[in-house]
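Morning - magnesium ion inputs below, output right after.
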Amino acid sequence: MFKSIRKSLSRTRQSVFGQIQNALGNGDITEETYEDLEALLIQADMGVDTSLFIVEQVRDRAVEKHLYRADQLIPELRGVLRAILIEPPPLQIDTPRLLTIVMVVGVNGSGKTTSIGKLAKYYKGLGRRVQLVAGDTFRAAAIDQLKVWGDRAGVPVISGQPGGDPAAVIYDSIRATRARGYDLLFVDTAGRLHTKFNLMKELEKVYSVCQKSVHQAPHEVLLVLDAPTGQNALLQAIKFKESVHITGVVLTKLDGTGKGGMVFAIYRELGVPVRFIGTGEGIDDIAPFDADAFIDGLFDEPPA
Amino acid sequence: MFESLGNRLQGVFDGLQRRGKLTEADVDAAMREVRLALLEADVNFKVVKQFVKRVRERAVGVEVMQTITPGQQVVKIVHEELINTLGEPGRLELGLQNPTIIMLVGLQGSGKTTTAAKLALHLRKKGSRPYLVAADVYRPAAIDQLQALGRQLDIPVYDEGVNGRPPTICANGVAKARESGATVVLLDTAGRLNIDDMMMDEIKAIKAATDPIEVILVADAMTGQEAVRVATDFNNAVGLTGLIMTKVDGDARGGAAISMREVTGVPIKYLGTGEKLDGLELFHPDRMASRILGMGDVLTLIEQASEQLDEEETQRAGERLMSGKFDLEDFLQQMQQIKKLGPLGKVLGMLPGMGQMMNDVDLSGAEGELKRVEAIIYSMTPKERRNPRLLKASRKRRIAAGSGTSVQEVNQLLRQFREMQTMMKQLKSSGAGRRGALSNLLGGKF
Ligand SMILES: Nc1nc2c(ncn2[C@@H]2O[C@H](COP(=O)(O)OP(=O)(O)OP(=O)(O)O)[C@@H](O)[C@H]2O)c(=O)[nH]1
Ligand SMILES: [Mg+2]
């Protein structure tokens, strides 16, 4: 297990500041230094507001500590970034109970189904009795896709008819999961843009089915965001939080060149933590989010 | 959250005289705002730099028109330059090759499969005989997905299961298409990372094996700063001929469109606007420019309105309005027309200036209100709808119970309806058109 996490972590390519040393140089700190810093942050998709905020924090620290060389800003920047990624409460999936329900939501194509396949194997490996339910009854072949992942992970998949009511399928699946003595249910949902009123209502219905069926469920609601997404990620998080109270983020496609910088804004504005990262299309390409490793990744020398 | 450029510039130019030339100092102050607005819209940092430079050159010394403010003058220049940068919409090269081979490439999850089906449908409507080839042998059930879409549209889909080699599958698919008399072949390739050398070699091999006249990058409109690198890498690998931006029906500003267009120089050919298979629109640079600036997409709203409203129905309701015969039945029908325009939020978001207001108005409330009104009218008998005067206390109680509302809410609706009738009578005498009916239906809230 541990080996595969290492392997998947090594596939992130998020380095933004790999060449920060060159970018900032080791001359005196000038206004231009801060502008260069801002440019780096913006290019990592951190957004204008968050980038300006970070630069101001770094500036404050520099003044406070009487720093004068540009390269002395690098540890300060690390510190500021790390401080934004506040320690979240324990992940509810890990808390023992009879039945834990995890809803997985997000816009189209962000990696929900794939992430569920990976998580199924991951938690099965930790000794959990995992079951999946195909709540995407809309997209063509979405049910077949989840079934393939169920096979790969060696966990059962409950599904209804294509075009059926997702809330009904999920209601049935919760009863079946209980009856068969499984203790962890991942709910796949159809991709939807957070701006679609009716589709968000549909998702709220799924949420309330979980809520009514099991005490304190859904225990986690994970928003799947992909790393190449820009500023819209924050709007997505806001809307999905309003609708279904997301409790965490799965940040996928970190094996690409996207940096996932928008998670800083999501932490800052919503306090929603990242819980897992996806780093490829293989079943083992997932790892629990490790804030220190994430920050390290941003500063690593870029992979050749 | 995201302010429109117009609002931003308002501040910069407050206190400036209204006329004369834009000075360097004016323009510099404005350019800072332009830069931030574009960055917030996800236009790539380096692309923004170039862009701002161009705008600055154009803006300094420009005579401010008498009718507008300096801020509006700058917005106008920015808007024009954005339109220039976005370029003319591209058309597919049809008819130069037989069959015309169109290859779709892109990152994972960008929407290639759905777009392939949408294009097939669109091209069939325009008289082509389309043929789809499923070349994504990696993502689980990707082939099933395209097969299902093909069945839905009754368009043939060629596949060789998941064991074939994509370049061979594509070459065989093209041969089959030719044999069957198809005039357009769409190659749906697997999503891949632009830095995955093996996978990038694969699309080069597919291109070599099929010689497509169109190689289109399908890209998510929500893409951030990496758009530049992604587009550049795909362009270098397979020589793009066009772009399709997807998920444009969301609320992303879509700055990636500018970035990708700027670094590849290839035109944007279509926009994907929804999960339904008819959700493919022609690209309009002026609308995209307005969207990126947060100026509201009025033109799209107007076009959608005129496409989706039942012309005859509206006409008839209008006539009844004018003749004073408008009843609750008509009221209901008008409401359903409005609902066809899509969720209120979407409709309103397209109006200029609404971006800001949307933050203040509880749209889910308005949406709920529409639903409530509808439920109330549905709970009435046709006779009651035609003659609301029949509605006495006991009937109101029945309707409230049937629609899950209260008698007060029923009364409120009837009051609104009466007010509307009165207003219509006044309008009729003043000769104004039927436009007011729409805003009235929205409860006069907007
Ligand atoms: N490179 C890479 N690709 C990924 C990752 N996670 C998912 N993908 C790919 O992204 C594409 C979309 O993934 P899906 O899991 O189908 O996404 P989804 O959110 O379920 O999509 P819809 O249900 O259609 O909304 C697939 O091609 C996946 O293989 C990742 O971490 N890295
Ligand atoms: Mg899915």
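Note: Residues A 106, 108-114, 136, 139, 142, 191, 224, 252-253, 255-256, 278-281, 285; B 108-109, 139, 191, 193 surround guanosine-5'-triphosphate (ligand 1) (CB under 6 Å).

O.
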